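I have been asked to look over a protein record a colleague put together. What it holds is a sequence and that sequence's fold in C-alpha cell form. Please read both lines and tell me whether the C-alpha cells look consistent with the sequence. I do not need a full report, just your reasoning and any doubts. This is what I was given:
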Amino acid sequence: MKESTSKLLHRLTHLENPQTYLSRRWEEPCLASELQRLLSKAGMSPADWIITADISRSYAYQILRNERRPGRDILLRTALALSLDLEQTQRLLALGSCGALYPRLRRDGAVIYALSHGLSLMETEELLISLPERSLYGKEG
C-alpha cells in the first residue's frame, strides 16, 4: 500500500539524513495515467473528454500518450469537464507542473467558485467574461 502524501511529508521533514530516503527510486505520478483514471472514473471516453473540454483531437491523444504536457487552461477545462472538485483539480495541476489555483487572484477565485459550485465549462466562461477576466480559451501568458 502506498504511503499517503501527508505521511511522506512528515517523514521528510523529520529526517536527520535525507540521503537514504531521497536516493531510493521514486515512483513519479504521471499526468497521462491520472487523466485516464479520472476519465474512467467519470465514465467518459477520450472522445467525450475531447468534445466536452473542447480540445484538439490530435493534441488530446498526445496528452493521453504522455507525449505532450497540457497548459494550465487545458487542465482547468478538463477539471470542469470532468466535474472535479478543488482538491482533484489542484492535484491535476500539480501533475501537469502548473501553478495551483490561488484564491487571492480574481481569475483563480472565479475558477475555484465554479469548481465548488458545480458550474459547467460554459458557465465558468460566462463568469470569467462577466468579471472581466481572461478566458480559459485564450492565450496563456
Observations:
- The radius of gyration is 17 Å.
